Amino acid sequence: MDAANFPRQGGGDGGYYNYPVVRRPVWTWEVPAYFWLGGMAAGAYVTAALAQNFGSADDRRVAAGGYYVAAAALVPCAPLLIADLGRPDRFYHMLRIFKPLSPMNLGAWTLTALTPIAFARAASHAASTGLLRGPLGTLARLVPTRLAELAGVVLGLTLAGYSGVLLAATNIPLWAKSKLLGGLFMASGLASGSAAVTLQAAWRGAPDGSLHRLAMVESAASAGEMAILTGYLLQSGKTARPLTSGRLRAPFWLGAVGAGTLLPLLVHRMAGRRQGRPLRILSSAAALCTIAGSLALRWTIFEAGKVSSEDQAASFELSSE
Amino acid sequence: MIDGYKRLMNIEKPPTPKTAKGFFTDTSLCIGCKACEVACKQWNQLPADGFAMTGNSYDNTGTLGATTWRHVQFIEQAKANGQGQEQRWLMMSDVCKHCANAACLEACPTGALVRTEYGTVYVQQDICNGCGFCVPACPFGVIDRTPKHGHFEAGTAHKCTLCYDRLKDDMTPACAKSCPTASIQFGDVEELRTRARRRLGELQARGESKARLYGMPEGREAEEVGPLHAFFLLLDEPERYNLPAVPRLPRKTMAQRYGWSAAVGVGFALVGALVFGGRR
Ligand code: SF4
Ligand code: SF4
């Protein structure tokens, strides 16, 4: 053996003691909460706009409540985002430059652009139903609805999709290893957003046909989410262990996967043949599960990422691909 | 109007570029005296990090961080050599690599992280709003945010500045100035690279077959993050020093990730249009 060949210290992957290679993310609960609400707002807006442009008169009336949901869910978004900053007083520095290369910058601009559009569209709907009267109502009637829908859909899809890409555009193994996190958050946001539309539709006593169609859209998103989640877990392999077998395994498997995705799929299927009150109750229950599951998914993946940041072996594996 | 916006948002014209400056840290010369750590703390007025004993050799610093910009590692290695145990100590003063393609800089949404006229990567403290994105973006775990309610520059990101203030006055960075063995060498990056290649040749001729340079343009580690302006001569594999073999640049896979995300979004829109449009 030649002089310079020393065996690896402590065996294993032989990094420097067991110090992490990357730093632990400093973000706190505001971030997953914001991702959840932002995704839901976007999903609700997109669902409402789709019903508006392709649905029956009933669908249009029922789904328009989605604009209210979207506007309401967007309200806490900016405050949450600001609260998580180390220097909240400098939040506007996000908009100092336009730098879409940084998902964080892209997201800040998207949120800034989508919020007024969602409010304008909600106001215009309120004006059209007579809810908003007076000078504000007159003003709201001037909103170009088609344009607001188109712009809102594009911005909404960006908002629902960038959050997963943001987490993945780091060197945290659990976030970065699979290429599917952006798609997963997108599907989860669309599922929870369409679920929120279903929920308000059921509460307002929507006709059966519209409820069935909303449930179908929501289930499509949930099924997509399930498929992408499977792909994500397969691609991540051992790296996903903080999520699948650590202290987060219960909220992940039971919350995000079981109660949050599989159960609503099942309940919506069951409700498929019902009508009237039973249908409304089942749809609401399923929608609530989807919404809660979406929060569970963001939160568990977010927290598991922090655990993963300390996984020296996973970091070396990530960087040797 | 644009000028007004620029003034409001602190957007300045960048200074004219100068020759790239950097560090060549030759770990074969390091004696583990930690003069660099102390000089850095002192010059940059960084607070102490407490007095925790790690039990990991002479390293009671642990990792780089928001208030630790040089970190001396102590790697203890032993092997049997016939007459008993042969031991060696590898010591290495770690620092921000000032990557040519810096992940932290690309992640920064405010433009606080900039490339200076010396080719180094620098956090403008009056711009950073502490969003924390650069922290998990750095493949080397270098940059960090100070505690939000702490006493030192609370809530913003910090890392080695390559003594930007000293460079402005044609002075050598504090760590390199204080290093008693020239393990930390400061200078023009190009010249340092030539020096490093020569030194590697010397060591290899002496039988240090595992000696290698880390962060040179031709190295595997430059594939994504580019050559490092603070590069190293190592005596063992990079992982032994907690350095990734091929540090990742998140940008490289970002389009693919957005692609999947967009595919899901467009798929949902199609399904929605079909479901609402295909009603009986
Ligand atoms: S080592 Fe990390 S903190 Fe330093 S320039 Fe590279 S990415 Fe940025
Ligand atoms: S914490 Fe500061 S330096 Fe780091 S990415 Fe955010 S704004 Fe930029």
Structural class of chain B: alpha+beta
Low-confidence stretches of chain A: none
CATH class designation of chain A? Mainly Alpha
CATH architecture of chain B: 2-Layer Sandwich
Tally of individual domains of chain B: 1
In a nutshell, what does this entry contain?
Chain A is built from 14 helices and no strands. Chain A has helices at residues 30-54, 57-63, 65-74, 77-83, 103-128, 134-141, 145-168, 173-176, 181-203, 208-236, 241-244, 249-271, 276-308, 312-318.
Walkthrough of the structure:
- The complex is a heterodimer of chains A (321) and B (280).
- Chain A has 321 residues and is mainly α.
- Chain A has one domain (26-320): Formate dehydrogenase/DMSO reductase domain (Formate dehydrogenase/DMSO reductase fold, Up-down Bundle).
- Chain A contains 14 helices and no strands.
- Chain A has helices at residues 30-54, 57-63, 65-74, 77-83, 103-128, 134-141, 145-168, 173-176, 181-203, 208-236, 241-244, 249-271, 276-308, 312-318.
- The longest helix of chain A has 33 residues, at 276-308.
- The radius of gyration of chain A is 22 Å and the shape is globular.
- The model of chain A has no long low-confidence stretch (mean pLDDT 94).
- With 280 residues, chain B is of the alpha+beta class.
- Chain B has one domain (17-250): 2-Layer Sandwich (Alpha-Beta Plaits).
- Helix content of chain B is 29%, strand content 18%.
- Chain B is built from 9 helices and 10 strands.
- Chain B has helices at 2-8, 35-43, 103-107, 134-137, 164-168, 174-178, 189-205, 222-225, 254-277; strands spanning 21-26, 70-80, 85-95, 113-115, 121-123, 144-145, 157-158, 184-188, 212-214, 230-234.
- In chain B, strands 8-1-10-9 form a 4-stranded mixed sheet.
- In chain B, a hairpin with a 5-residue loop joins strand 4 and strand 5.
- The longest helix of chain B has 24 residues, at 254-277.
- The mean pLDDT of chain B is 95.
- Classes of the chains: A mainly alpha (321), B alpha+beta (280).
- Chains A and B meet through helix 1, helix 5, helix 7, helix 9 and helix 10 of A and strand 2, helix 3, helix 4, strand 6 and helix 9 of B.
- The complex binds iron/sulfur cluster (2 copies).
- One iron/sulfur cluster is lined by residues 107-108, 110, 112-113, 123, 128-134, 145, 156-157 of chain B.
- One iron/sulfur cluster (SF4) binds next to helix 3 of chain B.
